Amino acid sequence: MKQIKGFYWKLITVILLLFTVIGGLLFEVPRLNILNETVRNLYFHVPMWFGMTVILGASVFYSVKYLQNPLSKYDILAVECANVGILFGILGMISGMVWAQFTWGSYWSGDPKQNAAAVGLLIYFAYSILRGLFQDESQRNRISAIYNIFAYATFIPLIFILPRLTDSLHPGNGGNPGFNAYDLDSKLRLVFYPAVIAWIMLGGWIVNVRARLRMAQQKLEDLDIYL
Amino acid sequence: MSSFFSEVTTLVRKEFVLEWRQKYAINGIILYVVSTVFVCYLSFNLRIPDGITWNALFWIILLFGALNAVSKSFQQERDGRHFFYYQLVSPEAIIVSKIIYNSLLMLFISFAGLFVFSLVLGNPVQDHFLFIVNLFLGALGFSSTFTMISGIASKSTNSSTLMSVLGLPVIIPMLLMLIKVSKNAMDGLQRNVSYDEIITIFAINTIILTVSIILFPYLWRS
After folding, report:
1. Does A128 touch chain B (CB under 8 A)?
2. First-to-last CA distance in chain A?
3. d(C-alpha A140, C-alpha A86), whole Å
4. Domain map of chain A by residue range?
């Protein structure tokens, strides 16, 4: 029964991802100046930030769980969530930079959101470095959990509040029309919402596989000690 | 609750007494600020630099002054003594007292820095009240963020590198807002232009304080 349930959500993820890729590349999109066909990046670039925030939120959730009840399971989940969050951040950065080259004219435009995302990545790279510094496992897990929660508390204002206080080149900011203005017939939304869900679910899937692998490795190591 | 306050006041007093006996810390920081200001002044070779440079230099010097001043807050006392405090007072009292002490220290450093800056590089600030309010917020923000970070970093062997690696990205949102408000104060803009930023700084400060007070007991235990 458990396996069937596990199978279904993976099937849904695959179907939604296929829909995102096929629909995102083939469906009709509004014709807009400058953006032209690159508006399709909405289905790939924007969901990365949604996914990053949600998965890093999950990471904080597991860190809190770890502090309440120090089981190594929670630590592994927190770390793998953070890793996938970093992966999504890097992918979002790359997809955004390529897009910016062709719409804004350069890979790095000093846009507030771009800068904030870069700083956010630095915060999470520091988290990875912090984990490498401790020899003692339980101390490492606890301190990295504390930093993870602390970092997320500063990451949220960085991503959500600061860019809104300054003009941004992004569509929907600083006088640029947002997507609400473009898709009166909801053409973009038809693919955008499934895309967000699909990418978040894919992130969860990666976390699931990697965490299970790590837990199995840990079990094997524990067995090695006894043998 | 009253015992909490008495614990905090006693601990803050302890910090001051410790500082007064050792003295090198505060003198060292002041000398650090003065010599950095001189390095900037001589290398830029400007008597009165333009506003943006003045502002950025001022806040960067304060930032690194804060990093140096606060990083010692968990390192100057030996581990054994921390166990002793743990027996006596609640961990919340310890972090609150450290934050209060570091804020006062940062305020002192900020004003010392401002004085030297005004003396050597000139003082282009027009709205002094706003600038000083901003200094207060900055002192509180720097000290609360870096106190928690120094607590985390002190658990590792390589704490001085770790302090900047962990602390600098985390402080950037605050620093950007502070620089913006202080630029507004320099240009003497209408105060209501800066309200959004001041509220944001205040909100970030509150978040960091709350998170520090909640998390510190867990850090303390290890």
Report:
1. no
2. 34
3. 19
4. 39-214
Inter-chain CB proximity B173 and A119 less than 8 Å: yes
> Is residue B129 classed exposed, middle or buried when 0-12, 13-18 and 19+ CB atoms within 10 A define those classes?
exposed
- The answer to whether the CB of B147 falls within 8 A of the CB of B96 is no
Alpha-carbon dihedral angle through residues A121, A127, A129, A134, given to the nearest 10 degrees: 180
Q: Tell me the pLDDT of chain B averaged across its residues.
A: 85
pLDDT digits (tens, 9 = 90+) for B78-124: 667 777 777 788 888 888 999 999 999 899 999 988 998 888 888 88
Closest CA to A28 of A191, A208, A176, A144: A191
Q: What are phi and psi of B123, to 5 degrees?
A: -125, 100
- Alpha helices for chain B (secondary structure H): 2-22, 24-44, 51-71, 79-88, 91-121, 128-153, 159-187, 195-221
Which alpha helices (H) appear in chain A, and where do they start and end? 2-26, 45-68, 72-103, 112-132, 137-156, 162-165, 179-182, 187-226
The answer on pLDDT for A20 being more than 70 is yes
Nearest CA among A15, A65, A59 for reference residue A201:
A15
| Amino acid letter for position B132 | I
What ipTM goes with this model? Answer: 0.87
Q: Which of B56, B54, B62 is nearest to B36 (CA)?
A: B62
Centre a 10 Å sphere on the Cβ of residue B43 and count the other Cβ atoms it contains.
8
Tell me if residue B66 falls in helix, strand or coil: helix
Sign of the Cα torsion A200, A202, A206, A208 reads positive
Q: Are A83 and A148 in contact (CB under 8 A)?
A: no
Q: What is the model's pLDDT at position B212?
A: 92
| Tokens linked to A144 | 């990295």
Collect contacts of B140-143 with beta carbons under 8 A, ≥24 apart.
B140/B103, B140/B106, B140/B205, B141/B171, B141/B174, B141/B178, B141/B201, B141/B204, B141/B205, B141/B208, B142/B62, B142/B63, B142/B66, B142/B70, B142/B106, B142/B171, B142/B174, B143/B66, B143/B70, B143/B99, B143/B102, B143/B103, B143/B105, B143/B106
Which DSSP letter does residue B194 get? S
The CA distance from A95 to the nearest CA of chain B, in Å, is: 23
A126 vs B169: CB contact, 8 Å cut-off?
Answer: yes
- φ and ψ at residue B188, rounded to 5 degrees: 65, 40
Residues 145-184 of B with CB under 8 A from A: 145, 148-149, 152, 155-158, 162, 165-166, 168-170, 172-173, 176-177
